[in-house]
Structures are given as structure tokens and as C-alpha cells.
């Protein structure tokens, strides 16, 4: 997951725009990360092609420089291709010919930029271009786009992960490998702009490199049946399924909420309440919601979503719980593990109240205390086992306390020692009290 803050940055940068065809909102939030590496673009009418709309999200890693450059310039490279506008899919990606695409063009341009080429940085790219009632979705990486059509989910893109068979074949053929579901044990996605460390084989073309910028492109005919689009980085999709997002947006529009409010509520929902979640809900988050107006008032879409939602509830076809009643801390919620932390908090608050009955209020529980409480809870739950294995991500706490003791049911002191760190997941085991160890903490991050 990489380095995290002691408290998340929850300030949201939200923007809106609208014309007779679209009502659009975007929102981004830094969250638990130490910096914001996402970028995004929404243009209702391209300056060089006024009949075309462009929407894109870029999830940067290793820094924000590649994501920012791409958000400013990728659409320009696409429309400058000789294939545009007669063959937009070909302009977006190389397919039947050996020509470069807009994605590969901008990748080459960044490689020639002095400030970028030596950077160990890259970015995903999920882009939707709309022209002449056709939707072109181009994806490189694990950001994602979905749509709602007649109240039903339409998946517009596929994630590019190193363990996908097609991706793995390309990686090995180019001289790389896959370890811990990461490219060369490092990068958690297999296609990206930038990441030039993985694009140095001069004997093969750009689309065959260990990591390629070549996008997959899908084409869809638009009609008045299309309700809305959602583009977002994996900070959203790691927490929620495609169907859950469609359900939430549909239900929210039916309640009369505007896209900007819906974006912000989704970011808040997906933010982990604590950073000890194995990376879940701890990433930067960016989302764009594009509502299709089709030249009609906003209320028309509101009424459509009311109808869809009522029909699905009546037919019991709502595949996931309605968001208005969905508890993210429930057993089937994304942050069910927090119940352990909450139980620890309750226990410690109770102990402090008993020890300091004269105090009107107890002092806040520190991160170290919460961490100790989690370990104690799990050790008590599994005291019958000889080996204890626990996953945590608060590396700052581990650096301060690499050895933590607790008392078992027999009154014996047990010590938890950090023995290994793999991909920001700390593996711990019970060892004799006389042993000592130091934490081998990795702060590296590759998305």
C-alpha cells in the first residue's frame, strides 16, 4: 500500500459541468496516502472537435507527474492521429496495423521529456470519448468504466492485471516475470502510461513490452436508453463492485441528488475508517459521473431512475443491498474487519473508565494502543493455536514496536515478533518471550 498518514485527508475537490446532453460531476480525495497522485479530465466539447466529448481518469503511482501530463495532453494526441475521426478505435489504439496510437504516441513523447523519462512513475488511463452517438472506451491499467442502460449494468472495460493469462504471456515473452501478482514483483498492473523501467527491450515493439500503454477499446452505440457513465480509479473498485456502484448512483438520482453529491458520498463510503485495512479504502480516490440528458430536463432522468429502482425492488432483482441501508461495517460489508478494532476500542475505553472513575472523560486512544488491542483480541481468539498469523499495515507502529507481548489464559506471557513483510502485509507469529526482532518494513508503492 505504501506510506500512510496518521489521519486521512478527506477534503474533496469537486467540479461540475453541464450542457444539453450531459450533466457531469467529478470528485477526488487524497485519503490516507501521503500525496495525491490521481488526475482527471472532463471536456464536454473538445476545442479542436466541438462535436466530441472527452472524459478520463488517471491513477498515478510513483508520483503524479505522468498522470498530470496525460490528463492535459492525451486527448490532443488522439485527435491528431491521421486515423481520426474516420477510425477512432484505431486512433486510440494500434490494432490491425503497426502504426502507433494516441496512447503509444503520448508514451513516446513522455519518454523524450527530460523531467519525466527518468522518473519511476506511471499511471493508468481510463478514457471515454463520445462522438456521433457512439461511445469509445479506451483502457490501460486497472481503473474502470461502467454504464447504466435501461437501469442495467454495462461493463465498458477490463482490468489489466499481471495474473491475467494474456497479460502474463506478454510479460514472460518480453523477459519479465510475475511474482505475488505483480510485474517483476513490483507493479500491481500490467498496462500503464509511463513506467519506462519496464519498456526497455529495444528488440520488440511498444505493444509487446513487459508493461505496455496499448489500450483495449470497446465501441458502443448510444441511444436514449443510456442513463449514466461512471469512471473511477481502483480506490473505488477495490471496495465496491460494478453492480453496487450502479445501484448507488441509480438510487441516489431517484432521490433527486445531483451528481456532485453522489460523487462525494461514494468517496466517503469507500474511505477506510482506519488505516489497518491491508490497503482497502486507503488509496487516492477519483470518480467522474456522466449523466445523459439526451436534450431533456434533469427531472426526466430522475423519473427514469425512480422507475428502474422501483421495478427492481418489486421483482427482487436488486443484486446487492440498497446503499441507503447498507452497513459498510457489517459482516458482508467492505470494512467488516473494523469490528475487531471497534471491539478493542470498546474494551480499552471500558478499562480506562474503570481505572479512572473520577475522570469525566477518557483520553483519546492512540494508534499504538489500537494496534496493541487488535493483536490482543486476535491472540485471545486463537490462543489454542501454536502459530499466530496476523495482517496489519500500520508500518509506523511496527517501527516503534517490533515486539508486542500479551498474556494468555494460563497467565503466560506471549510475545508477537515481526518476521517478514511482503507487499505491505506484515506476517507475524508467536515466539518465545526471550526472542527479539526488528521489523523489516517496506514503504515502497507500485499502485
UniProtKB/TrEMBL annotation:
InterPro entries the record matches: PP2C, PPM-type-like_dom_sf, PPM-type_phosphatase-like_dom
Cofactor(s), by name: Mg(2+); Mn(2+)
Biased segments, Low complexity type: 346-366
Domain of life assignment: Eukaryota
One Pfam family named in its UniProt record: PP2C
Uppermost EC category: hydrolase
Alphabetical keyword list: Hydrolase, Manganese, Metal-binding, Protein phosphatase
Annotated region (Disordered), positions in chain: 341-368
Enzyme Commission number(s) of this protein: 3.1.3.16
Molecular-function GO terms, alphabetical: metal ion binding; protein serine/threonine phosphatase activity
Domain PPM-type phosphatase: 23-292
Protein family membership: Belongs to the PP2C family.
Name of the protein in question: protein-serine/threonine phosphatase
Lineage: Eukaryota, Metazoa, Ecdysozoa, Arthropoda, Hexapoda
Amino acid at each position: 500500500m505504501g506510506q500512510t498518514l496518521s489521519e486521512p485527508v478527506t477534503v474533496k475537490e469537486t467540479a461540475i459541468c453541464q450542457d444539453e446532453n450531459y450533466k457531469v460531476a467529478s470528485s477526488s480525495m487524497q485519503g490516507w496516502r501521503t500525496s495525491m497522485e490521481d488526475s482527471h479530465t472532463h471536456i464536454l466539447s473538445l476545442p479542436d472537435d466541438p462535436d466530441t466529448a472527452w472524459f478520463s481518469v488517471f491513477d498515478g503511482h510513483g508520483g503524479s507527474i505522468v498522470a498530470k501530463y496525460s490528463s492535459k495532453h492525451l486527448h490532443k494526441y488522439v485527435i491528431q492521429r491521421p486515423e481520426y475521426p474516420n477510425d477512432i478505435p484505431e486512433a486510440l489504439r494500434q490494432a490491425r496495423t503497426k502504426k502507433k496510437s494516441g496512447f503509444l504516441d503520448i508514451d513516446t513523447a513522455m519518454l523524450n521529456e527530460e523531467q519525466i523519462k527518468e522518473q519511476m512513475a506511471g499511471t493508468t488511463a481510463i478514457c471515454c470519448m463520445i462522438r456521433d452517438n457512439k461511445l469509445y472506451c479506451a483502457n490501460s491499467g486497472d481503473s474502470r468504466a461502467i454504464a447504466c442502460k435501461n437501469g442495467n449494468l454495462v461493463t465498458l472495460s477490463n482490468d489489466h492485471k499481471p495474473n491475467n493469462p494474456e497479460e502474463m504471456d506478454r510479460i514472460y515473452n518480453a523477459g519479465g516475470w510475475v511474482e505475488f501478482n505483480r510485474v517483476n514483483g513490483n507493479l500491481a498492473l500490467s498496462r500503464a502510461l509511463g513506467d519506462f523501467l519496464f519498456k526497455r527491450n529495444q528488440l520488440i515493439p511498444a505493444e509487446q513490452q513487459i508493461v505496455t500503454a496499448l489500450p483495449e477499446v470497446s465501441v458502443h452505440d448510444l441511444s436514449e436508453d443510456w442513463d449514466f457513465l461512471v469512471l473511477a480509479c481502483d480506490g473505488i473498485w477495490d471496495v465496491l463492485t460494478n453492480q453496487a456502484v450502479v445501484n448507488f448512483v441509480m438510487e441516489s438520482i431517484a432521490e433527486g441528488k445531483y451528481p456532485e453529491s453522489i460523487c462525494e458520498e461514494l468517496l466517503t463510503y469507500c474511505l477506510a475508517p482506519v488505516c489497518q485495512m491491508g490497503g482497502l479504502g486507503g488509496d487516492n480516490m477519483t470518480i467522474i459521473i456522466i449523466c445523459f440528458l439526451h436534450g431533456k430536463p434533469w427531472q426526466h432522468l430522475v423519473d427514469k431512475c425512480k422507475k428502474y429502482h422501483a421495478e427492481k425492488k418489486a421483482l427482487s432483482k436488486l443484486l446487492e443491498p440498497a446503499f441507503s441501508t447498507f452497513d459498510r461495517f457489517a459482516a458482508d460489508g467492505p470494512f467488516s474487519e473494523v469490528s475487531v478494532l471497534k471491539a478493542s476500542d470498546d474494551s480499552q475505553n471500558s478499562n480506562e473508565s474503570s481505572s479512572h472513575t473520577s475522570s469525566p472523560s477518557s483520553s483519546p486512544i492512540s494508534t499504538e494502543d489500537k494496534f496493541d488491542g487488535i493483536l490482543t483480541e486476535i491472540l485471545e481468539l486463537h490462543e489454542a493455536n501454536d502459530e499466530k498469523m496476523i495482517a496489519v499495515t500500520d508500518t509506523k507502529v511496527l517501527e516503534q514496536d517490533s515486539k508486542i507481548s500479551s498474556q494468555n489464559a494460563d497467565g503466560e506471557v506471549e510475545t508477537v515478533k515481526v518476521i517478514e513483510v511482503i507487499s505491505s502485509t506484515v506476517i507475524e507469529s508467536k515466539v518465545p518471550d526471550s526472542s527479539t526482532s526488528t521489523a523489516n518494513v517496506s514503504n515502497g508503492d507500485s499502485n
